[in-house]
Specification:
Elements (H helix, E strand, L loop, with lengths): L15 E4 L3 E6 L17 H6 L6 E2 L8 E7 L2 H12 L4 E9 L6 E5 L2 E3 L7 E3 L8 E9 L3 E8 L6 H8 L13 H5 L6 E9 L6 E5 L12 H4 L16
Parallel strand pairs: 4-11
Antiparallel strand pairs: 1-2, 2-4, 3-4, 5-10, 5-11, 6-9, 7-8, 9-10, 11-12
Length: about 240
């Protein structure tokens, strides 16, 4: 990880949105790692802040350091296996809000571009039609501002930096993105303006589909309406038909 200086926010230390005896959902701030990095000075992370109070806590998915928003964690191995299986089979849906530079021509659409690691410039990713992995993002413009737009993003796949690259390739990079924006677009925001606002998943104990929402600090009008904005939402596989631990 190319990180010259790591100064994660300390307030609040942990923002727990929901928890029960099986799972915990936290609102990760921008600038905090999801899990510890390789170097000792990069140990501070959402996981390391939680593990002191929850010794068996397990990360089942991650957010980029500069992305804020919802992270779902498992409190025990059985819940971890169930949730990881759901991410593996794309049983989850996530809605992000982003502020992008400029104004997309269409009010909504789809970006379908295969991605692969840009190895000499890692962790950057790039579009590659030969070796890239299929990557699809649905987007919808929520608000047009003077220089920027707020967009809702629904990733169908979960590739590294997918939303960031797809918005760049659409011609509207996410503001404040150190990897994929430059000039005015980069300088417009002091953080990457990307927030994981809503997450739907099957509860590992009850197997009931549920959704968790957390507000967006750079767009206070964000709403928890995952199944209304993207209609129809790509159909979820039948949870009970999947192989279980």
């Amino acid at each position: 990880m190319a990180m010259t200086e790591y100064n994660p926010p300390r307030e609040p230390w942990v923002d727990i949105v929901f928890e029960d005896e099986h799972i915990l959902v936290a609102n990760k701030p921008s600038g905090l790692l999801s899990v510890p990095g390789r170097l000792a000075e990069h140990h501070d992370s959402l996981w390391s802040r939680l593990v002191a109070a929850y010794p068996d806590i397990q990360v089942v998915h991650r957010l980029d350091m500069d992305t804020s928003g919802l992270m779902l964690l498992a409190k025990h191995k059985e819940a971890e296996r169930s949730l990881k299986k759901q991410f593996q089979y794309r049983l989850t849906h996530k809605v992000y809000y982003a502020r992008v530079w400029g104004h997309p021509a269409q009010p909504q659409g789809e970006v379908d571009l295969p991605l692969i690691c840009d190895w000499p410039n890692r962790p950057r990713q790039k579009v590659c039609f030969v070796d890239g992995k299929p990557s699809t993002t649905l987007y919808q413009v929520a608000k047009r501002e003077e220089h920027t737009s707020i967009v809702r993003l629904l990733p169908i796949t979960g590739r590294s930096h997918q939303l960031r690259v797809h918005m760049q390739m659409l011609g509207h990079p996410i503001v404040g993105d150190e990897f994929y924006s430059e000039g005015e677009a980069f300088e417009f925001s002091d953080r990457l303006a990307l927030h994981a606002a809503e997450l739907s998943f099957y509860h590992p104990a009850s197997e009931v589909l549920q959704s968790v929402f957390v507000p967006c600090d750079f767009y206070l009008e964000a709403e928890a309406m995952i199944f209304n904005y993207f209609s129809p939402v790509p159909e979820l596989p039948d949870y009970k038909m999947l192989p279980h631990p």
